[in-house]
Design a protein that fits this description.
Distance between the termini: 135 Å
CATH class of the largest domain: Mainly Beta
Shape: elongated
Structural class: mainly beta
CATH architecture of the largest domain: Beta Complex
Strand content: over 45%
Number of strands: 24
Helix content: under 10%
Order of helices and strands: HEEEHEEEEEEEEHEEEEEEEEHEEEEE
Number of domains: 3
Largest sheet: 9 strands, mixed
């Protein structure tokens, strides 16, 4: 049987073929991180019986690079035919490239905040409230220089489309830089509060008060009334009375004359002023009081 096998093999034509095979990195020293672009494949010229090469499948040929002697900094590692794992009867005649350049940096870790991402819009009449995430911080690991620059870990977007109440989802988390990795956590629970939107309202025809007018002067604003736009929560808006919104102009220190002055407005602490129309009015000041 051995003789028959030898006769069959020896009768096959010897051929040569080019292959692109994966590069396997082994024995990376603890405390070091690979940085920059690391090749994942190498090109080979292999030779052997046509039958043997015809039976080669992906994974049968692998380039193996032993990194146990690596040190911090940029290093060059030769790649020879002896470092290629091939099936019996196949010979490696050329490896391209013949050496692999790699950079190594000290490994570091740091705690950084998890920032929740939100996608979509709540139902009409509702807005986003407070956002929280558990865990609020996670530990990232990687090359020292990259770890120092990272500021946050992002979550997969949480959809709040059409929501009218609190949304809670457990989503994946990760870092954008491929040289970084998470030490422990791979997911986080994000809670997004959905609250009723603040209401907006226009309080019309509010009289313009003139503040700081000297006792010996009299003044008149034209127009004498303005419209004031306000924003507040539903509860606060329900308590607003027109007299709670006071439009005024400060004329302190001004003498007789005609001025175009900006109108301001006072409101309760839980009510915001959006706009005043018109934003400025003409004020005529004249002497006239005894």
């Amino acid at each position: 049987m051995a003789l028959v096998l030898w006769m069959v093999v020896s009768g096959e034509e010897t051929v040569e073929r080019g292959l692109r095979v994966p590069l396997e990195l082994q024995q990376v020293p603890a405390g070091l991180e690979l940085t920059g672009d690391v090749p994942t494949t190498v090109d080979l010229r292999v030779r052997g019986p046509s039958g043997a090469l015809g039976r080669v499948s992906p994974g049968d040929v692998v380039a193996v690079l032993d990194l146990r002697g690596a040190q911090e900094g940029r290093r060059l590692f030769p790649l020879t035919p002896e470092q290629i794992r091939v099936p019996f009867g196949v010979q490696v005649v050329q490896v391209t490239p013949s050496a692999i350049a790699m950079a190594f940096e000290r490994s570091a870790s740091r705690q950084v905040p998890v920032v929740p991402a939100v996608d979509g819009h709540p139902a009409p009449g509702y807005v986003l409230g407070a956002k929280s995430v558990d865990p609020p911080r996670v530990e990232v690991v990687g090359p020292e220089s990259v770890v120092k620059s990272v500021t946050e870990v992002l979550t997969e977007p949480v959809s709040v489309a059409g929501a009218r109440d609190r949304v809670t989802q457990t989503v994946a988390i990760g870092v954008l830089d491929p040289s970084l990795r998470l030490k422990n956590a791979r997911s986080a629970t994000v809670t997004v509060q959905i609250v009723p939107a603040p209401l907006e309202r226009t309080v019309r025809s509010r009289p313009v008060h003139l503040r700081g007018l000297a006792s010996t002067l009299e003044a008149q604003a034209t127009p004498a009334v303005v419209d004031v736009g306000v924003r507040a929560s539903r509860e606060a808006m329900s308590r607003i009375e027109p007299d709670n919104i006071v439009a005024f102009i400060d004329v302190a220190g001004l003498g007789a004359g005609v001025y175009t002055l900006t109108v301001h407005a006072d409101s309760p602490p839980d009510v915001g002023i959006l706009h005043i129309e018109p934003a400025s009015v003409q004020v005529r000041i004249a002497s006239g009081r005894d």
